[in-house]
Fold these 2 entries.
Entry 1:
Amino acid sequence: MSKQPIGIFDSGVGGTSIWKEIHTLLPNENTIYLADSLNAPYGQKGKETIIDLSIKNTEYLINKGCKLIVVACNTATTNAIDLLRNTYNIPFIGIEPAIKPAALQTKNNAIGILATKGTLSSALFSKTSDMFASNINVIEQVGEGIVELIENGKLLSNEMKTLLKTYLKPMIDANIDHLVLGCTHYPYLIPLLVDLLPDHVKIIDSGEAVARQTKAILKKNNLLHIEVETTDSKNCFYTNANPSTMQSLLGSHFTAEYLDF
Ligand code: DGL
């Protein structure tokens, strides 16, 4: 069972930012990554649709024999992970905006959160926000249009810069000292965000924490792939849209393939 792959899915290419953290921490693990780019963005869809798409992705990965599934999408996690955990007998790891560390570390009592509409309007997000940030000025911003630009290969475009400037302005005006990235597409924006934000603003992204949690849960369930020096891990990347954007994010060592799922 430990040789079985870890399944990872996202509404698109963004979850590859999570896959990179997992692969860095667990290089022996075999992985299957699904980018549901045909249906991206999930963030503008209703809860029922997000749940249906999450079920479709999960069942594909379970049928491929995955031993654990990483929901590498804040929108799918905050809307569907409880149902997935209650439906399938396999461990799930999710990702949510890291409000807690930002709220604990802020000195200005002001933090920014950039995420999709689906994440910011979810019950899970409200619960976490109420629990950890009720006394803090939380500037929430829906990142409308960002996922589409990334999916279309316009990551470092002028359009993206203009959009980000508009979204960051109210946060900068409120003197935030932490910006929480609440979408797995957004870590790819870090070079642009660093340029646009004042130097004192710390960017918080949960990718590394997700990788550590994946390792802990695999270990707890005796599912870690035993390290054998001579074995190379097998990493498959599938998208149901044009693979060129995913390929450019993966670089030349890995191959993005088209798959109708
Ligand atoms: N990567 C997804 C997330 O973390 C993007 C959601 C979308 O497709 O809108 O929320």
Entry 2:
Amino acid sequence: MNPVHFEDCSFLNLQAYFSSHPFSSVYVLADENIVLHCYPKIVSYFPPHRVIQIKSGEENKSISTCEIVWQKLTAANADRKTLLINLGGGVIGDMGGFAAGCYKRGIKFINIPTTLLAMVDASVGAKCGIDFMRYKNQIGLFNEPEAVFIYTDFLETLPERELRSGFAEVIKHYLIADKDAFEEVRSQKSEVSSIKWDTVVRKNVAIKQQIVEQDPTEQSIRKALNFGHTVGHALESFFLNEKQQKLLHGEAVAIGMVCESFISYRKGLLKDHELQQIAEVVLQYFNHTYIAEQHFKSITKLIAQDKKNEADETCFTLLSGIGSYTINQLVEKDLIRESLVYFNSLH
Ligand code: GLY
């Protein structure tokens, strides 16, 4: 796995990287918020480059945005020795890695994540892709960045809702791999605005790297990282198409973690008090979202389409206690519906 560097405001690792890696041209992929808030803090450490600015938001993680990137690269005659710098959150990193992987059969890219979600999850582990039709990350590939450079001070520019969204992935890591850290979150009840991110991000990158290194292409244990995401992705896709209410990725995963903990409990894998503790922590950080029963059918249909399924079977990663997991668990539709009813009952 390529290196993940932690930076302070002098960006020494980034500077060393550019002085030892010559490129024919360099492009920075960023959205309008990043161009405004983060780009000015780092631009002086970049070699001469052009910016490709795209529109923010999950709805723009699409093939048409990739076309814009490819058009700009093609119009400027960018060759295979070009570098793409993905400066931004999960959408920029996932889509930039995908666009880089396809342009002229692959150019190099680095990730400089600016959101908590991208720092602890999306920028590490080589999953790249775009949403297609109603499905999250339906088109994609495994494509490793040359390196990842993490500067946690970027989080100071992030709205609290975005920080909470990223915190869902932190809770997920602790639920699958670190019982003590989960207990710490549960007992400290800290506001996201008062958390010391440097330590948290380092710990979470280490958890993720340790899993990904053992199973880079998700044949087995990397599936642990999908906990909360089978229901979560379906909810995120469903609400993406609902005009009145959109859920951020982490908000959908937070609901997904409660539902999938309920399923774990009903399958005898998780104790009653553990389920309650998980629901309590999730509801401490996330407002409750009521999921109208009339939507259950569409949501279970989206779950049936999940790319983690095999043949016709819906495959989940479930918890077998706090801090441990079990993969490839088949779950019947009725139990998925019941988990949504359980989540609604917490309102
Ligand atoms: N976000 C889950 C993974 O990288 O496998």
